[in-house]
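Handoff note, outgoing to incoming analyst
You'll be picking up this chain. Sequence as last confirmed:
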Amino acid sequence: MRILFLLVFVIETASAQYDLFDLATSGDGSTAYFASTLSLAQPGTTSPAGAPGRIFRVGSERFQLYLERPRIQLPPIPVAGQTMQVTNHFDLSRPQISSNGKVMSVVGRRVCS
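Most recent structure output, in case you need it:
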């Protein structure tokens, strides 16, 4: 019950800022995962605009950062006589968890220019 209350509080507080999205729960509801652009920073500090998505978990282990990836600029790729700049898939969203909680998938977006 405490997990549900904490999750509802976090969702109501952060969703008003559009920084919390894509809620997924395990089959028994004991663990919830969500994506957010918020960071676990010092009080009084905020994430920069356009911060990459991270995956957080709320469950028996309490609230914690579950998955994040650093942004890495990859070497230029030649395409049709030009070069394309790309990054790794660092901006995470849409967590999905299996009903038994053993398999997770996420979507990672990258920047291409």
